[in-house]
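To: structure subgroup
Subject: Chain for Friday's discussion

All,

I'm putting the inputs and outputs inline so they're searchable in the archive.
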Amino acid sequence: MHDIYSKLEELSESGQYPFHMPGHKRNIDSTPLKGAFRCDITEIDDFDNLHEEEGIILEAEERANRLYGAYKTFFSVNGSTAGILAAVSAIVKKNGTILAARGSHKSFYHAAFLRDLNIKYLPNKIDSEYNIPGVYTGEDVEMLLDKSIEAVFITSPTYEGRCSDLEGIAEVCHKRGIPLIVDAAHGAHFGFGKKYKIKGEYNSVPESAVKKGADVVIHSVHKTLPSMTQTALVHVSDRYPIADSVKKYMRIYQSSSPSYILMSSIDLCMKEMEEKGDDFIKTLLDYRNRIDKETEELKNIIIPGTEIIDDPAKVLIADRSGTMTGKQIYGILREEYGLQLEMAGDRIALAILSGWDTTEGIDRLIKAVTEIDSGIEAKRHRETAIDVKEIHEKNLGELPKSVMKLSEAWDSQTKETLLRKACGLISGDFINLYPPGIPLIVPGEQFSEELIEEISGYLEEELNVRGVVFKAEDREYYVKTI
């Protein structure tokens, strides 16, 4: 049985001349991307078609499905974005209502826009120590389910590695006959590996959302597994007759000329995890436990462990003394130590581990945060303000007031308004911190003084705020309003 890559290799070594797309004609001298181009083809004989798979692509999807245990698994070469768009579009009818956490990825909001949906929000939870999104229980969801809700959308794990009670949420959803969609983009490695008896340390990765009862699960295989950027999986259960509908929308939201290089990358990744998944996860756990152990005595830098972060692949780095912001930690690690982290927030910097990291890289990270800690201790001008022994989640209360439907507002004509003068006006665009892209305000919602102050604070910290434009001529920030 062929995998996609071996079939592509066989073609590249054959005498077949390509009088077909793409234009580089598999000529390895056409550009510097020699290795990739020799395997880059279109849908030709014997190579199946992602949108109507019945040969090697179907076999590859079934190979992936055997690992995760869903009813159907589909490849996405347009990332988790296409999977989220397809799942929401397949399950919620136009102008329908979906229940979701505010801290959902922007692709969820794009799906809501395209389908003209009404969004009902779960409580806006946040961890007050690290200012990261909170997680949800079945009770949180159950109290907001009503006859209008057609689906529930949950992000688990979060970008920072925290997991909601998916089993409990699935149970309350299914009692009402409501499908559960889980954006598990950052959890493709969940469910792999053995469970080790390591007291007080990470001894396993969490179970996959597929096994927790979700009806559609979207995984970005490139985020934590050895696959190329833009590769993802969409898993569908057989609880509701939605697989064909999800497939229909996958055809809509993906290119009609999908990349065979990306598909072969997914397939090779699945083979790697099938053959060496236990070793991959064991290496990840060893790296994470070593980081935690060798930094636990630091006086200022804190890396929260199992008591807060469920996913060992996510390493949050914060200064508990309050001396440094996450952005400052991120900048020092990048500029002084040559360590490029995933992202920076106002309180945390985030590194992502995988089973393909190296001992040398882990050594450098431990050394760097240890030296940063010593520097803070030498310069610290106030006592530690944060008790990190337990997590404190709080409900942020009211979201910005919604006065227009998202789809109507985002299609409206907008004008540029000074951020400081936007109070009371309706936003014509999303404003969010990126990554991960969680909105501070959604089109159709009203600016308040408190929100303007919050956005201004992020700008002062030089965080990556999208949806705000700085004009050098008058040194002012502008936003789009209706």
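Points worth raising on Friday:
Residues 260-295 form the longest helix (36 residues).
The radius of gyration is 23 Å.

D.
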